[in-house]
Amino acid sequence: MSTNHHDHDHAHDHDHEHLPETPFDPSYFQLMETVVRELLIEKGLMQPEDIRQAVDMMDSRTGSERAARVVARAWKDPEFKALLLSDPFAACEQLGISSGDYKMPGELRVVENTPGTHNVIVCTLCSCYPRFLMGIPPDWYKSRSYRSRMVVEPREVLKEFGTQVPEDVAVVVHDSTADLRFLVLPLQPAGTEHLSEQELAELITRDALIGVTTVKAQAA
């Protein structure tokens, strides 16, 4: 029997990184970013090079590679995995990754995929996301279609990402908030036990950490 769950026990409290409650297509925000950027440059408050360097810094410091490192360590080290599930911030600190680097508010919860459970993350009202680990959320994560449909028909949405979850596996949808962010701990692919942490990290994608795909034994 198909089983779906929706985990959302916390109210949203929007801050500067969140989208307004009125849903817009991503193109609206792309347009606003362009207008604001051009206005800042026109007023002499910033130069194009300043903006480019800031974006490069965010991408290099807060890409999903950080989260991939964390997951790879959890796959190799059972004690680290236990700490990651009980105290994610402390586990990240062991790898020199601090939530303070991006001033992430609230709590981080790591949800583990198992043979009987597949977890997936959404933010139904905005774009809450563990940016200090995952970088900037993709446009589809912020889209009205994903935010509204994932909680109603998760299996259908997962199919559109190429992920077929067996009917006997429960799909649990976790709704992020300003005070609570989620990270999926994917299942380690069979046959990869001999790989090093670095090799494992290279298999782990951003989409698998959100839960819309699974980790493959060979990198795409």
User: End-to-end distance, in Å?
Assistant: 32 Å
Give the CATH class: Alpha Beta
**Low-confidence spans:** 8-26
Integer average pLDDT: 83
Helix and strand pattern:
EHHHHHEEHHHHEEHH
Number of strands: 5
Coarse structural class: alpha/beta
Q: Can you give a write-up of this model?
A:
The protein is of the alpha/beta class. The chain has one domain (4-10, 21-42, 62-210): Nitrile hydratase alpha /Thiocyanate hydrolase gamma (Nitrile Hydratase, Chain A, Alpha-Beta Complex), CATH 3.90.330.10. Helix content is 41%, strand content 13%. The chain has eleven helices and five strands. It has a three-stranded parallel beta sheet, with no helix packed on it. It has a two-stranded parallel ribbon with strand order 2-5. Residues 8-26 have low confidence and may be disordered.
TL;DR?
The chain has about 220 residues and is α/β, with parallel strands linked by helices.
Keywords:
two-stranded parallel ribbon; Nitrile Hydratase, Chain A; 220 residues; alpha/beta; 3-stranded parallel sheet; 5 strands
